[in-house]
Write a structure and sequence with these properties.
single chain; alpha/beta; globular
Length: about 220
């Protein structure tokens, strides 16, 4: 299905019945990466998946920033009248979730984020080097965004009032120390590490993150 937000056509899907759960993909991904997890989650939740602007089947935009992309998610929620959903975001999608939870404290009931960084240097040196090389070759505006953003302050993180569940792969591109600092900055947060996994190996085209979400939301 399509929805028009700020003059742009965005693609989204809905599956299942129950409490609302929104799932947002990472940079360069799309809603299809969640299909295996949605097959589990739709048994307990109404699952909404959205292609961000310039991803999947959604229209592109001229410039990319995390705060602007987060505003599209906010408008999507308001336009569909989704009340206090659980929010799941992978990588860039999780960054947008942190921004929204900080700015709109009543928007979500719970926040689950995987592989997030709040500063560009939260990424490991090798990961940033590869991004810089890829940007030199492609001049991609989406990659440029990752090199220059996000810039989320500790004060912004401290304003997040809902329970936050953070996850990372044992071999994530986000450094362990950076993730632990994020956890310390958010009042109601806890961290789960997926052993032997990388940045998105337990998320994209995997049921692992769906099973994890079911486990922590079983009550």
């Amino acid at each position: 299905m399509y929805i028009t937000i700020k003059g742009k056509k965005l693609y989204w899907e809905k599956a299942g019945k129950g409490k609302p759960l929104i799932m947002i993909h990472g940079n360069g991904g799309n809603h299809r990466g969640f299909r295996k997890s949605v097959s589990l989650l739709k048994q307990k939740f109404t699952v909404y998946t959205l292609d961000l602007p310039g991803h999947g089947k959604s229209e592109g935009i001229k410039t990319y920033s995390y705060r602007d992309l987060a505003s599209y998610i906010y408008e999507f929620i308001k336009k569909l009248g989704i009340k206090r959903p659980v929010f799941y975001g992978f990588s860039d999608g999780g960054i947008m979730g942190l921004l929204l939870a900080s700015k709109k404290p009543q928007l979500f009931s719970k926040l689950i984020v995987s592989g997030v960084n709040v500063k560009p240097d939260g990424l490991k040196v090798l990961a940033r080097f590869r991004m810089k090389l890829l940007y030199c070759l492609t001049k991609s505006k989406k990659i440029k965004m990752m090199l220059e953003e996000p810039n989320i302050s500790k004060e912004e993180l401290s304003r997040i009032s809902v329970p936050v569940f953070l996850t990372r792969g044992e071999h994530d591109i986000v450094s362990k120390d950076h993730t632990e600092q994020i956890v310390k900055s958010i009042p109601k947060s806890r961290l789960t590490v997926f052993p032997n996994h990388f940045h998105g190996s337990y998320v994209v085209f995997s049921k692992a993150i769906g099973a994890y979400i079911l486990k922590i939301l079983k009550d």
